[in-house]
Amino acid sequence: MNNNTMYSKLKKAEPVLHLLFWGMVLFFPYIKYLGREGGYPMSFMHELVALVFNMIPTYIMYLWFFPLKNKKKYVFWVLFVFSSNALIHYYADNFFHMGADHKDHQDHRWKYVVSSFVTYFSFSLAFFALYSIKKLYAKQLELDTTKQEKQQAELSALKAQINPHFLFNTLNNIYANALKKDEKTPDLILKLSSSFRYVLHEGQKEKVTLSHEITHVKDYISLQEERLSTKIQADFFEDIDNPKTEIAPLLLIPFVENAFKYTSILKGKNHQIRIRAVLKRDQFSFYCENPYNENKKPEIDANWQESGIGIKNTQRRLQLLYPDRYQLQIKKENNVFKVILTISL
């Protein structure tokens, strides 16, 4: 149960808690004398008056004193209220002690006042516990809300990043194909349009279906293969048992983009990129492998190097979106860069 739910339930239950508490105070003397001969000697009106005088200082503490920041400045006024209330209660109580016990009641005036002080402090202590619990949940709720807003702002900023390098290079390729009147030109335009529609619309959602996320990845691969022609071969494999399973958008594309980025700077042809996406019983596995040469890293176009969402930001998103529900391994060995991601969806 989250803090928001607990705080809401506590606020709704608070009036009932107050009624139960004061109900117990009101009827306690009668319960204490239950079974004794003659029962409790004082009238019900006497207990009601006592209840009102006990409630006054208690709620002054609960509603006024406890929320104060600098309580030391107002301790005198608390003592004044307690004293005044106790004395007024004492004189009001005289009306219920007529007859033989009237003089005896007057002789114990200061004992009565001290006893009232102890009662007020006891009740105030009980309500301070309630106030502290409410304040604790309210503070935690405020922290949770602030954290959620911060996370949402961060996620929105991360998802809003679009790779201009990819866009410009792909448009250049499409333009070259159009000049050659290549039959693939309409299909490339459609895939590019679909890719950016996904980023701008689906990418702003909290969750998308896994089938949509994978389609976006495949469109990106297809466009990059066309752009890089014979230099790169992409081997994509998928095995999804439930395509409607939802995942946060734009989680996979940074790893795929990274693979093409570092493979594109290598010399030679037919460099292979292997990508695997598997979902079994809500356990999603993603694998991406590409050839890698650390010495070639400075040759990457500065615009491409700085653009896009990036792996570091994706790691941060995973921490925010799937805490304790994901594992990410990034390995560089034998001139091969590997990404192994598992998420419990």
| Estimated structural class | alpha+beta
Rounded Rg: 36 Å
Task: Write out the strand line-up for the largest beta sheet, numbering strands in chain order.
Answer: 2-4-5-7-6
Q: State the distance separating the first and last CA atoms.
A: 20 Å
Content of β-strand: 5-15%
**Strand tally, please?**
7
* Overall pLDDT score: 82
Provide the low-confidence segments as ranges: 303-308
Shape: rod-shaped
Number of helices: 11
Q: What is the oligomer described by this structure?
A: single chain
Helix-strand topology string? HHHHHHHEHEEHEEHHEE
Helix content: 55-70%
Tell me about the biggest sheet?
A: 5 strands, mixed
Write the layout of secondary structure elements.
Blueprint: H1 3-32, H2 44-65, H3 75-93, H4 102-107, H5 109-160, H6 164-179, H7 185-200, E1 208-209, H8 210-228, E2 232-240, E3 246-247, H9 253-263, E4 271-280, E5 283-291, H10 302-306, H11 311-321, E6 326-333, E7 336-344
Parallel strand pairs: 2-4
Antiparallel strand pairs: 1-3, 4-5, 5-7, 6-7
Summarize the structure in short.
With 345 residues, the protein is of the alpha+beta class. It is built from 11 helices and 7 strands.
Detailed description of the structure:
The chain is α+β, with helices and mostly antiparallel strands and 345 residues long. Helices cover 60% and strands 14% of the residues. The strands form 2 sheets. It has a 5-stranded mixed beta sheet, with helices on one face. A two-stranded antiparallel sheet has the order 1-3. The two termini are 20 Å apart. The relative contact order is 0.08.
